[in-house]
Structure formats: C-alpha cells, structure tokens
Specification:
Length: about 450
C-alpha cells in the first residue's frame, strides 16, 4: 500500500518541494509554501466550503497587526504569517528616485518586520516576533506591502524573507535559529519586493532579481550557510522559484525578463534556458508530468510550455518548447495547474482561460467572471473546484472537470485581499489587509 500511495503521489506532481523529516503524506495534508503542497495551487486532500459570508461558515476572524500581502502557510495546528507594522512619529515624506517611478507610496514611518503564528482552531495569535526594525528604503507601489513574500515551513522551522530587511529562520515557537543579511534590493520603479523563498530537502532557495546585480542563492536550511550563489543577467522580477524533480535530479526553475532557466540544485549550474517572457515577471511557474509552464504579461505577453526531457542549453524555438501563447497570459496571479488543465487569469482581470496542458488550446472559455475585477491573489483548487478572490473581497467558486466553468457560488467579505488562499482539510484561510479568516462548515 505504501508503494502504491507513493506511485500515485509521484504521478500527481514532479515536485515543487520535497521535505526532510515529515514525509510526503504530511506535506500533502498541509499548506507549507506559496502555492500549496504541490506548488501548483492545488490541495489534493482538501475539501473547503463552497459558500460563505461575514455571517456564514466563519469559524473565526482574527485582527492582524500592520499590513502584509504574504500568503498564509499552514502546518499542523499553526498558521504562519508575515507583516510590517508602522511605529513612531511621522518623518518627513520622501520618495526614492527610481527610474520610471510612478504610483509609489511616500516613506513616512519606521516599521517593524514581524513573523507571527496563529492557532488554527481558535484564531488566537500564539506568538509575534519582531525580526527587524527601521525605515524602508523603498515604500513600494500603492497596491503593495512591505511584507509581500510568503513564508515557507517544513513543520520544524519557518523561513521568513523580508528582502532588504533580511532572511530569517525560526522554530515553530518563534525562536530565532539564524538570520542572513543579503544587502539592499533596488526594485524596478521602486515598486517593492515580493519573491518568496523555496524549500527542497535541506536546501533553501532565494531569488534576488533587481535593478543591480541579480543572483540566485542556495543555503543550508539548518544553518543558513551559503551552498552556492550564481549571478543572473536579469532585472527585477517578483516570481518565486520552484524546484522540480526530473530524471532523478532536482532543478530550480526561475523565470526572468531575458530567460526562463533551470538550474542544478546541487551546483547552481544552468541546465537549460529559454526566451519568450516579458519584463516585470510576477507570476510563478508551475510544473508536473515533465512539463513546466511559465507566463508573464507587461509590455508584451508570453506563456511557455517546456518539455524537460532532453532540455539542455538554449532551447528557445526548439522542440522542447511544446507550445507558446502570446495572448491571455498572466501578470500578477500565478497559473493554477489542476490535472491536465492550466487556469490562467488574463493580466490581473476577471477573465480566466482553461488551457489544455499538452496543446495550449482553450478547453472552453475564456470565462468572464461578473463581479470580479482586479485580482492579485492567485487561484487555488480543491475537490473539483476553483477559487478566485478579487482585491475587493469577492471569491467566486467555479467547477473543474467535466462541468468546468460552471459558477457555483459568489462569496463576499469586508476586507481587501492580495494574498492567496490556503486550503487545508475542510478549511479555507483568507488573509486580508485587516483580518485573517478561517472559513469552514464545521
């Protein structure tokens, strides 16, 4: 039975993350990282509610200090979050002089950069640890936050990344294990930072793409010791790396303006690279069954489907690019990979396409979601359903599978949402700018 379960697991994912200590079954029963246990936005063991409101199917809602767009991660009875809390007197406003800066916030307050844990059953804040303090060197876009990178956990430690304010490893009780100062990041237009770390086995991966010398970094997760660091010829991106097992080896996959690349996780050496994306890459790639899907949308649009078998060197325009799409591509929300379907939100609008992963062809749609406008959070899936949450608090639930695209429910909460939902068991966790919600029928 164990071998059967393992075989089913491996056919379901070509691993965005592997875990030491707790086994794969434990990982699948939690939401340990940005984009969930498979790194695809799908929770295979979850069955969250279809309907809710401020007065229906809310087990608890907890007021959160400060502001953060970091998505919640869940392991066991704890939910881990990051936030930035302003404090002290207002200082003279200043706006960093970044080329092309527009719609940026002014810097008027010192901030505490904080990790916290919430009890999954009661919503009580169990601990709250200040990891750094100071005036941010960039306040970011008006729609951004100073805590936008999501934490990642292996059930023993929690990794909190605040970019220019440092990388931190804590135990699950909030005790600091190690910390790392990686320098100061200068983001494009001064729009802020947001790439989340990725965890695979004993290795923690950090993407440091910005307007100066970009790099990709691998660290020992237990000590913070640098394993390798490779320079990247890229400008700012906000995309989170994924780690994929293929051919018995793990590779780190990172999009960029110039190239989408696969790196050997053991050495940092480039295995393959492919052009075709735009600048300002925000959406994270997804992968399964020997395929990688990565898209962007800014001044140009592009969505690549890469076959990993035989991918070496520059594969631009080769047979390893299974298909390439130039319209209806994602900007802020990352794709959702559910079975053999790829769900893409156009730019960050309420229009969703369902694509065949093998051909890139539409499987019905595109679907215009009435009542959904601006979407920053990424779609998630479970129990044959798709959940899409808009910034103004509307979550629409649509069917997956044979009746794909059928609208099942429209739910509204009184908050602003940029973080993505976490799905665990029969619960759905939504992090707004004021509240953390636990949504369940139980």
């Amino acid at each position: 039975m164990k071998s059967i379960a393992f075989s089913l697991l491996m056919t379901y994912l070509l691993s965005p993350a592997a875990y030491s200590g707790p086994g794969e079954a434990d990982a699948l029963g939690n939401w340990s990282q940005w984009r969930g246990p498979l790194g695809t936005g799908v929770a295979p063991n979850a069955n969250p509610p279809v309907e809710w409101s401020e007065t229906k199917n809310i087990r608890w809602k907890t007021a959160l200090p400060g502001k953060g767009h970091a998505s919640p991660v869940v392991w066991g009875d704890r939910i881990f979050l990051l936030t930035a809390i302003p404090y002290g007197d207002v200082v003279k406003p200043r706006i960093p002089n970044r080329p092309g800066a527009h719609d940026n916030l002014a810097l008027t307050k010192q901030h505490e950069y904080v990790a916290l844990a919430v009890n999954r059953k009661t919503g009580k804040i169990l601990w709250q640890e200040t990891l750094s303090k100071g005036l941010p060197h960039e306040a970011g876009h008006v729609s951004a936050s100073l805590a936008s990178a999501s934490p990642v956990t292996d059930g023993e430690r929690v990794y909190a990344f605040f970019g220019s304010r440092g990388l931190y490893c804590l135990d699950t009780n909030g005790k600091l294990v190690w910390k790392k100062d990686l320098g100061e990041m200068h983001s494009k237009h001064g729009h802020g930072e947001g790439s989340s770390p990725a965890l695979h086995g004993e290795t923690l991966i950090v993407n440091w793409d910005h307007e100066e010398q970009s790099f990709l970094l691998a660290l020992d997760k237990r000590t913070g010791k640098q394993l390798w660091r490779v320079a990247r010829t890229e400008d700012t991106s906000w995309s989170t790396p994924i780690v994929v097992e293929h051919g018995g080896k793990a590779q780190v996959i990172v999009p960029g303006t110039n190239r989408l690349r696969g790196y050997d996780i053991a050495t940092g050496a480039i295995i393959w690279e492919c052009g075709g994306l735009s600048s300002n890459v925000v959406a994270s790639p997804v992968a399964a069954n020997g395929m990688v899907f990565s898209g962007s949308s800014y001044e140009t649009q592009g969505l690549l489907a890469i076959r990993l078998d035989g991918a070496k060197g520059d594969i631009t325009g080769t047979k390893n690019v299974l298909w390439y799409r130039r319209r209806g591509t994602p900007y802020v929300p990352s794709p959702l990979l559910y079975d053999n379907s790829l769900y893409i939100l156009h730019h960050y609008q309420g229009i969703v396409s369902r694509l065949d992963t093998k051909t890139g062809d539409n499987q019905g749609g595109p679907y215009r979601m009435d009542g959904i406008d601006s979407v920053y959070s990424s779609p998630v899936g479970a129990a044959g359903r798709i959940y899409i949450t808009s910034r103004d608090g509307v979550t629409q639930v649509m069917s997956h599978g044979e009746q794909a695209g059928k609208m099942l429910a429209e739910n509204r909460l009184d908050d602003v949402f940029s973080a993505s939902a976490a799905l665990v068991g029969r619960e759905l966790f939504l992090r707004g700018e004021r509240w953390l919600y636990c949504i369940t029928e139980e």
